[in-house]
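Appendix B, record 7
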Amino acid sequence: MKIELKEDIGFSAAHFVIGHKKCEHLHGHNWRVGVTVEGEEDDRGLVVDFLELGHMMRKICEAYDHRLLLPEKNSGLKHTEDGKITKVSACGREYEFPTEDIVWLPVLNITVEELARVVIDEVAKELSKYPNVRKITVFVEELPGESATEERNIRG
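Structure tokens (predicted):
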């Protein structure tokens, strides 16, 4: 059985893409996120309760909402923290941001592809607690028609 949750989940966040001529400028998106869960129905007749799944997805997205997303693994980005301010240097530009407004992600760049991987890692961690769930698919959309999809088998 397959269930999908694709409406009213997402976050608004700023980012830049190091090494991309147009997108290396600081900008933001209203990112949309969706999830498909495949597995057997449990003793309630559910693969996963939509209320539980929606809460899980909203909690994940809430961590990114109204934040600046920055990549931890990109050598083209330098940063220093000075108390409550983080100074960032990338793409020939220098910025200062409140440290609490930054979310560092374990990626090379903040792209829709990388975000799909990050989100599916978090979803897989949560859904691995459900013994009936076999496979999950996450999509992240940065603009209408521009999205990335990542699939993960949790159990064979």
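Remarks on this record: The radius of gyration is 17 Å. The helical segments are 50-62, 112-127.
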